[in-house]
Write a structure and sequence with these properties.
heterodimer, A: alpha/beta, Rossmann fold, six-stranded mixed β-sheet, four-stranded antiparallel β-sheet, 10 strands, B: 319 residues, mainly alpha, ABC transporter involved in vitamin B12 uptake, BtuC, two-stranded antiparallel sheet, 78% helix, binds adenosine-5'-diphosphate, binds magnesium ion
Chain lengths: 254, 319
């Protein structure tokens, strides 16, 4: 089977518990290659946990993950991970270029040092997100939006085929949000598969091809037109539909 | 005395002994400064504290078994005890709701107290495992130690041992700097690359234990903490780049050693404490004059640079 027919990401019965308290139950999805997927759900729904479990960052207590038809370990180099921006210390003594270069570490093994090719990849990635002029800045001296761009550049430098991004739109300015959307679409055009945790339901319907609705269990996964519906969103967000009523109305009109 | 005499005093009094003291202090402070920098970046400064205190019961047990204060088993026992304290910290903080800082406090105080108890129980009250030395070090006694011939020089044995420890640390750092940097900055990304965060964590803790154990004979269990934290903290205030920070930390270690010797000779003070005091003075200097956020420069400049500039233009270029 070629890559085109293989799902980019397939999970079966993926289950995660923290201290024996389950955070994610039996997730079954098969994400077709080349799609742009929004992962949507309320706070604490396990969105970050899902991504971390796929990446093997947190151990899963059951189920399996396949990436392009193989266990994650064998295809680790084809997956890029963008953690939540708050998960790192932005006072850390590294520059923008250092962070972009980290994207190339995965292919270097433990001891090889980044060389010319890696630096070129990092520069190109920074250029793409408009952060090349800031290469030598310490990362703490950047705005939230700029920090997020640096994280994206690091992911681009990984040169993966499947990307998992945790809330790349959180705390960014409008310009950066637009830039990221453009970048995501461009990645899709180049055949990349991108899963993005997104907290804003309003825009989720516009930005993505497919949505993965999550609330500890998988509520629904499918094309936006099929799953961006009142019932499913209500099911995902439970009783808290007052906040959602506007969105739900829009969904009903779709 | 005039200026020159103050400066040459150590050499007049101690001769080549002054060099041995400086080298010894430097070889202790250098590996401490490098690993300590990483401890600071990982917000684990107190872990160095924990290791240095918990080393004590390990030393007592090893001494009880071997009966020899210079036995290499003392280092092994101490290293294991140091590692045990980090394991206890992890266990408490992973399996209970007690947070890391409290777990660290529990681990090292309990182990240190256990060491005191064991010393009284196993060794009785009149043995020559001198608590004073354990706490405050015996750097000042260096010149009375056995000497080994090296290139025609009679080098005090502890200097050679510590030089070896410093060398091993620097070699490890050379190979693993990138791995330690990534896993300290972004453990999740490191894990997604297939690095094992637990292996890296315990590996680093083992190296810290090893250094602390080797160093604490020289400077004692309390002052070694200062040598772990001061250079890295001072360097952190002086640079935005990890490599430069490590370099400055090493320089801090060297200057502390030299400064310590002078204080020691001028005031006839405890050598180890003198090294730490000069390290403290250097930290204050870094705080005031540090090139990136020294208080003085900020005071002169006043105006704050805006990071937000041109973020809109950048956005437009993309869309
Ligand atoms: N490291 C952790 N230890 C214990 N519980 C956790 C941990 N990370 C997340 N959780 C819990 O798991 C649940 C899901 O969290 P998360 O995946 O971060 O949700 P989301 O990203 O959708 O907001 C929450 O109840 C959270 O409290
Ligand atoms: Mg989250």
């Amino acid at each position: 089977m070629s890559d085109e027919q293989q799902p980019a990401l397939e999970t079966h019965d993926l289950t995660v518990a923290y201290h024996k308290r389950p955070a994610l139950y039996g997730i079954d999805v098969a994400v077709p290659a080349g799609s742009l997927v929004g992962i949507v759900g309320p706070n604490g729904a396990g969105k970050s946990t899902f991504i971390k479990a796929v990446m093997g960052v947190v151990p899963s207590s059951g189920g399996w993950v396949k990436v392009f038809g193989k266990p994650l370990r064998e295809n680790l180099h084809r997956v890029g991970y963008v953690p939540q921006r708050e998960s790192v210390d932005w006072d850390f003594p590294v520059t923008v270029m250092d962070v972009a270069l980290m994207g190339t570490y995965g292919g270097l093994g433990l001891f090889r040092r980044p060389g010319k090719a890696e630096k070129k990849r990092a520069s190109e990635a920074l250029e793409k997100v408009g952060m090349l002029p800031y290469s030598n800045r310490q990362i703490g001296n950047l705005s939230g939006g700029q920090q997020q761009r640096v994280f994206l550049a690091r992911a681009l430098a990984q040169d993966s085929d499947l990307y998992l991004m945790d809330e790349p739109f959180a705390g960014v300015d409008a310009a950066t949000e637009a830039a990221i959307v453009t970048l995501l679409r461009e990645m899709r055009e180049r055949g990349k598969t991108v899963l993005v945790v997104h907290h804003d339901l309003q825009s989720a319907g516009e930005y993505f091809d497919r949505l993965l609705l999550l609330n500890m269990r998988l509520v629904a996964f499918g094309e936006v037109k099929d799953v961006y519906t009142r019932e499913l969103l209500q099911k995902t967000y439970g009783g808290r539909l007052t906040i959602l009523s506007e969105v739900a109305d829009r969904a009903a009109k779709l | 005395m005039n200026m020159i005499e103050y400066i040459t005093l150590p050499w007049d009094v101690l001769g080549i002994g002054a060099l041995w003291l400086i080298l010894m202090a430097f070889f202790v402070a250098l590996p401490c400064s490098q690993m300590g920098s990483f401890l600071i970046l990982r917000r684990m400064a107190l872990t160095g504290d924990a290791i240095s205190h918990s080393v004590f019961p390990g030393v007592v047990i090893a001494f009880y078994i071997t009966g020899d204060l210079s036995s290499p088993w003392l280092i092994v026992g101490a290293g294991l005890a140091g590692l045990a304290s980090t394991v206890i910290i992890e266990l408490i903080h992973k399996w209970t709701r007690v947070k890391q800082d409290a777990a660290t406090g529990i681990s090292f105080t309990a182990l240190f107290a256990l060491g005191v108890l064991l010393m009284e129980l196993l060794l009785g009250k009149n043995v020559d495992l001198d608590l004073e030395c354990v706490l405050h070090g015996r750097l000042g006694l260096l010149l009375e130690d056995d000497r080994l011939a090296l290139f025609g020089l009679m080098v005090p044995a502890p200097v050679l041992v510590m030089a070896g420890v410093a060398l091993v640390t620097m070699v490890l750092l050379f190979f693993f700097c990138r791995v330690m940097m990534l896993s300290s900055f972004d453990a999740d990304l490191a894990a997604s690359f297939g690095y094992r965060p637990a292996v890296i964590h315990y590996g680093m803790m083992f190296v810290v234990s090893f250094i602390v154990v080797a160093a604490f004979q020289a400077v004692g269990a309390i002052l070694v903490i200062a040598l772990l934290i001061l250079p890295g903290a001072a360097a952190y205030l002086c640079s935005y780049r990890l490599k430069v920070m490590l370099l400055i930390a090493a320089l801090h270690a060297l200057l502390s050693a030299v400064g310590g010797l002078y204080l020691h000779v001028w005031f006839n003070s405890n050598m180890a404490a003198s090294v730490v005091v000069s390290g403290g003075v250097l930290f204050v200097l870094a705080w005031l004059l540090g090139p990136v956020d020294g208080v003085l420069w900020k005071w002169f400049k006043e105006e704050v640079p805006t990071p937000e500039e041109s973020s809109d233009q950048v956005g437009n270029r993309l869309s």
